[in-house]
Design a protein that fits this description.
8-stranded mixed β-sheet
Length: 215
């Protein structure tokens, strides 16, 4: 799935975030450690034997909080540096694999299906057309009753000025409002709910987390 240049910035200082160690260092400085654990336990809800697909997995830091009783984890990312880093870091987990490939290739050739699909910090890097395509692909990969979890910066009314400023300078330039995200998601997943989180970072920031259910 090709990303639209107009909604993603990968040059200049922001381009340094393509380096795993730089990316992870910034996340450690800004992110509350408890947030990742909360994300997994309260929203992702992995269960014994489940199969998880993580689209745009980055260095796969989320795996530090995903229990080993899952059946399989597949992490996809366009950045080969992220994939190499993740594969080395999690080499001790035999049920996890990492691939630098397009999720559309996976759906076309693997015949795999998943209980949970993650798209964390991804939608705000994609234009509306690419988001719609991604959602259709995910719907084809999810098992009946499966879930897609998304997690992106969001613009809200009376937003903290610091949060609004930080979000406006993200590498992803397609940050939407709550209604904007929901409208896109519900074209493919009518049963979609969302929650706004204000306390994910050590600095003011606003996240919109969606759970899209496949009926």
């Amino acid at each position: 799935m090709a990303q639209e240049e107009t909604v993603h910035v990968s040059s200049g200082v922001l381009g340094l975030l393509g380096l795993p160690r730089v990316y992870r260092t910034l996340k450690r400085v800004l992110r509350k450690q408890s947030n990742q654990e909360r994300l997994v336990t309260q929203y992702i809800h992995p269960f014994p034997g489940c199969r998880i697909l993580d689209i745009g997995c980055g260095p796969a830091d989320i795996l530090a909080y995903v229990p080993e009783y899952i059946s399989a984890y597949t992490g996809l990312d366009f950045n080969p540096r992220y994939i190499e880093f993740a594969a080395q870091r999690w080499s001790n987990r035999a049920n996890c694999r990492f691939e630098c490939r397009d999720v559309n290739d996976l759906s076309a050739h693997s015949g795999e299906s998943f209980d949970i699909v993650l798209a964390l910090g991804l939608l705000h890097h994609l234009g509306n057309g690419d988001v719609a395509g991604l959602l259709r692909t995910v719907a084809g990969l999810l098992k009946p009753g499966g879930r897609l979890i998304t997690y992106d910066g969001v613009y809200v009314e009376r937003q903290n000025p610091v949060a609004k400023w930080l979000i406006s300078r993200d590498r992803g330039r397609a940050v939407r409002t709550e209604s904007g995200y929901l409208a896109l998601a519900r074209t493919v997943f009518p049963d979609t709910t969302g929650v706004i989180l204000h306390d994910t970072l050590r600095v003011p920031y606003t996240i919109f987390l969606m759970t899209c259910h496949k009926s």
